[in-house]
UniProtKB/TrEMBL annotation:
Residues 12-110 form the HTH hxlR-type domain. This is Helix-turn-helix transcriptional regulator. It comes from the Bacteria. Keywords: DNA-binding, Transcription, Transcription regulation. PROSITE patterns: HTH_HXLR. GO terms for molecular function: DNA binding.
Amino acid sequence: MRSKRWDGKSGCAVEVTLSVIGGVWKPVILFHLVTGKRRFMELTRRVPNATQSMLTSQLRELEADGVVIRHVYPEVPPKVEYELSEFGRTLVPVLLAMREWGETYRGHGSTDSDG
C-alpha cells in the first residue's frame, strides 16, 4: 500500500527515495526503529525536537508508504508500537550509511565553501 507521492516528476530513483524518507524527522525515526519496535512515547523521547503532531504525521506517511508497521494493542491505556516492515528493513543499509556519512562530515571540521 504505497502512497501516490512516489511518482516523481524527474523519474529519478533518488527522488522516489527522498519522497519516502526525506525530511528532517523521517530518517531519524527510521534509524530509531532499526533495532526493533518502539512505543510512540519512546520515539518522542528519542526525537525530542519533533512535536508529537509532527511525529504522528511522519509515522502515518511512513506507514502509508509501507515502510513502517503500526501495532495497536487493545489495552487501557492504549499501547501503540511501531516497527520497520520487511520492506522497510531494506532501508537499514541506507540509514547506517547516512549515519556514517554524518559522523564523517561532523568530524571533517571544514566548512570551506571554495570547492
